[in-house]
Design a protein that fits this description.
Layout: E1 8-11, E2 14-16, H1 21-27, H2 37-44, H3 54-58, H4 65-73, H5 77-87, H6 91-97, H7 104-107, H8 109-114, H9 120-133, E3 148-152, H10 156-167, E4 171-175, H11 184-187, H12 198-207, E5 212-215, H13 226-232, E6 235-238, E7 244-245, E8 258-260, H14 261-270, E9 279-280, E10 282-286, H15 290-301, E11 306-310, H16 322-330, E12 334-336, E13 339-347, E14 350-362, E15 365-376, E16 379-382, E17 386-387, H17 390-395, E18 401-402, E19 405-406, E20 420-422, H18 434-453
Parallel strand pairs: 3-4, 3-6, 4-5, 6-20, 8-16, 10-11, 10-16, 11-12
Antiparallel strand pairs: 1-2, 2-9, 7-17, 13-14, 14-15, 18-19
Length: about 450
């Protein structure tokens, strides 16, 4: 990666334009190039088409995986897409970002027998891409029921819920806090995982069924309360995700150079010119999940020379899958485990480094050992989990919350209120996965439909 001849300095050690455009374009190409038709046939031929297939059980949306792979193998690609979309209308995005290595592909019989599973994710992308590129719609909206449902959040859970409700003939209004739909898929996933503005193409594909109206810049708050939504609609689904980010919890003022990883990822996702995103020369990412890996890898792709992920427990405990960890190290990211931040070092209000303390388990409780070391850093990213943010104060008087998340009372997302359901990252059982959010949105829609129609 050649350095740019004219980087723009924004702060000590943090500059934009570290790399020329040609290098950035190469760095941010699709991390999983799609299969061509011949490759798809070869890959599909490896499937055993198991009866009672374990891969289906491992899929949160329960897609009939052997069926859609068999359809691909017989040349019925659009039929395969219909099988996928029937269970997961956001199957195209899930094919790109799902940790298939710990879900369906890990459960694959080929994985157990040979250590090389059927490439289910790539085959799913092959089928769904074909349908979306041809703009083939498989589902026809049923006769209008006259029922009105409010969906809060145009992310994976909200979109999946809205599509299923619109399919049944209900009128759905999605209230989205941002000025653009997509939620996690649009703002929270690494750029190299979803290229070519795919998230927005998918929103268009989902809403093409009709009966779905999206109102932007409409966050829950004084002007749009849950009580108001309940009065104006027959049912409400909450799928607004998590808006806040956990703090490092260190004493003293936070110096310049400390950022939230989710904010950095969102900025990069929306940037028309990635060369304008400022990045440090020495970068430290605090956290151990997918967000930490996405942040660290993209810092490297932007031209950071040294990038270190620091995680308070062992690598086996990281929420990021082994594949994601390997992806990070293959890009030159260093992963240091059993360490936690102790102090941020600064000069004239600008970050210069971070002091970390080694950790260990004592009677199953994580404690610091007292032994510390320091890393030079001109940029530190926080990727230590998200919180409900301002939505907690908006909802705490109306809904039962558990640990800053919405409590649900059944598997279909029913909340403590009889006409309110919830799903995705905002609920207590959320898993920070697109596919799980889709399943919860879909299942809530089924429950809402059943209750409204008796």
């Amino acid at each position: 990666m050649a350095a740019s001849s004219n980087p723009k300095k924004l702060a000590d050690g943090i500059v934009s334009g570290r790399l020329p455009k040609t290098a950035l374009d190469e760095n941010f190409t699709d991390v999983h190039p799609p299969l061509d038709p011949h490759e798809a046939l070869v890959a599909s031929d490896r499937c055993y088409f198991c009866y009672d297939a374990p891969c289906v059980t491992a899929c949160p949306t329960a897609i009939d995986i052997p069926l859609f792979i068999r359809q691909i193998s017989t040349g019925n690609t659009l039929g395969a897409a219909e099988t996928i979309f029937d269970q997961n209308i956001l199957g195209g995005m899930c094919a790109r970002v799902c940790p298939t290595e710990t879900l369906c592909e890990q459960a694959c019989v080929r994985e157990a027998a040979e250590g090389k599973p059927v490439t289910i994710g790539l085959l799913q992308r092959f089928a769904t891409d074909e349908a979306m590129q041809q703009d083939v719609q498989f589902f026809e909206r049923q006769k209008n029921t006259g029922k009105k449902i409010a969906v809060v959040g145009a992310g994976p859970a909200g979109l999946a819920c809205a599509h299923r409700l619109a399919l049944y003939g209900h009128d759905v209004t999605i209230y989205e806090a941002r000025k653009k739909p997509g939620g996690l898929n649009e703002f929270g996933i690494a750029t190299y995982k979803t290229v070519d503005d795919f998230a927005q193409h998918e929103v268009d594909y989902v809403t093409a069924i009709g009966g779905i109206d999206i109102r932007y810049a409409s966050p829950l708050g004084k002007k749009l309360s849950l009580d108001k939504l309940r009065k104006e609609h027959d049912a409400v689904f909450l799928g607004m995700g998590l808006a806040g980010v956990n703090a490092l919890g260190l004493k003293g003022a936070t110096p310049q150079g400390v950022r939230d990883a989710v904010e950095f990822i969102a900025e990069l996702r929306q940037a028309k010119n990635k060369g304008r995103i400022p990045i440090g020369r020495r970068v430290v990412v605090i956290g151990g999940g997918m967000t930490a890996v996405d942040c660290a890898v993209q810092a490297k792709l932007l031209g950071a020379e040294e990038v270190t992920i620091c995680y308070r427990r062992g690598q086996k405990n990281m929420n990021a899958s082994p594949y994601e960890q390997e992806l990070a190290t293959s890009h030159g990211v260093t992963i240091r485990d059993w360490v936690q931040p102790a102090k941020l070092k600064a000069k004239n209000g600008q970050l210069t480094g971070i002091t970390l303390e080694y950790t260990r388990l004592e009677k199953k409780k994580l404690v610091g050992t007292g032994e510390k070391f320091s890393l030079e850093a001109d940029q530190v990213f926080r990727a230590i989990g998200q919180t409900f943010g301002d939505n907690e104060s908006v909802l705490e008087d109306e809904l039962k919350l558990v640990g800053g998340h919405i409590a649900t009372v059944d598997a279909q997302g029913q909340t403590s209120l009889p006409d309110v359901w919830a799903g995705g990252d905002c609920i207590a059982d959320g898993e920070d996965l697109t596919v799980t959010a889709v399943a919860q949105g879909r299942d809530s829609a089924e429950a809402i439909h059943q209750k409204l129609m008796g």
